[in-house]
Amino acid sequence: LKGGALLKELRLKLRFITPAFIGGPEISSAELRPPSIKGMLRFWWRAANAGKFGLNELKLNESWIFGDASGNGRVSSFLIRVISDRLNNNLSKDNFPRNNYALYTVKGHRLNILEYLAYGTYSYDRTQRRNVFEREYIKPGLSFELFFSLPDRAESKEVIQELYSALAAWSCFGGLGSKSRNGFGSFAIENADGHPLLAQLMQLSPASYFKKLLYNTGLPEFTAFSNKARLFKTRQVFSSWDACLARLGHVYREARLSIENKHNYELRQYIGAPIIVNKTQYSLLGRRAKPYFLKVYKEKDGYAGYILHLPSHYYLGDNSSLQPKGSFNRETLNDKFQKTCEIFNNYLSDQLEEIK
Questions:
Q1: pTM over 0.70
Q2: Within 13 A of 73's CA, how many CA atoms are on the CB side?
Q3: Beta bridge partners of 14
Q4: How many of the other CB atoms lie within 10 Å of CB of 85?
Q5: Phi/psi of residue 169, each to 5°?
């Protein structure tokens, strides 16, 4: 950020409402880092604005706002600082709450749906006969502050508009850290100052903001909002974050199981690949993140749960390691991908309220 004094900093105060797995230099320890936050803002800005520009223009605008690490030398239009004085007192490896509403049965064993959603962050300890977290997580309730600094230039007003766009989508539908698509790292905005536009963030709800992001009429090439996106909400408001996330977890798991017969795995891999079968990775497809986002959202009288579906073409990229095994072509992949998501969504619409 060269050339000109900095504007007054924009400030947000956020509070985690679900556990957050945010790795530092040591992946087993948790840390709040500006690059992680900027990465999430970049992702949600791209998802929210994909329908406004062509692909090349989208990339140019993204690099103008967030910087470009490809060698073009474009620096970010803003700086981020993170302050959390109580982080070290809010780290844990304790097991999640094991209330009846979080339990489900597989082969006679009672398992915790919260651990199902956090798969990969723990290992099974045969001595203790339970899962033990290998990674620290930030406990719900921790507040932290984000400071955004912008240079004193005329274009800064536009940067603030774009920051608002990213922050709005992120706060309504996303989280921070590993497993954020499974509802972990969900947060609430407690305060905002430095610009009138930021104050509006605290007035948003996922349901109301979702309807403002459906202007793109084509199926996106990547995970992004369009008029084909769907949003589902729990029919009740819960008194605790774990009860809310447990409900989302049960619905999500049963939706995956509804796709095909119990011991078939051809279609389930389209929800997210690879999948785990008998403790080993299985997939004919390359690695691909699922197009679903679980979110625990704090409302005045409790916690509401959301599942957002952002459909797109099944794009595998140019990396040869991501190419599917067997005789697949893009048309076949797209067809199976969309049909699988349709089955998944039909189950969600039976169990949750769809926002229209």
A1: yes
A2: 0
A3: 144, 189
A4: 9
A5: -65, -40
